[in-house]
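From the shared-data thread, chain only:
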Amino acid sequence: MKPPITPIPLHWDWERDIPPAPGLVVGQMIYLSGQCAFDPGGKVVAPRDMIAQADRCFANIQDILGRVGASMTDIVKLTTYFTEPLSRERAEQYWDVRRRYFGDYRPASTGVQVASLILPELVVEIEAIARLPG
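Structure, as tokens:
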């Protein structure tokens, strides 16, 4: 028997205007759509600022997981898409932002450099796979 697929509830008005669901719960797993730096009003945060945008992406992920009772430490896999090449210094700045959300917890992760994202002012997008707690 296939596990049910349940869309994560919408929270922000702008989520109603785009095709993808914020995420899906499938059995005990949560699959989030890639999160970009959109604020609750649907506006891009800090155009072309990778560090500020990463912070907003993680805040969005945290919010969406909270809608189904999960937290950042329920994430088992992250994929981060960057439009800029990362020097050692820029990578450390990204890791500093990430540590604010995860502390010492370290999910499996992949970083990928891409040519562009859906809007030119977006420079980072993060998708996550998590498990339901309990």
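The longest strand covers residues 75-82.
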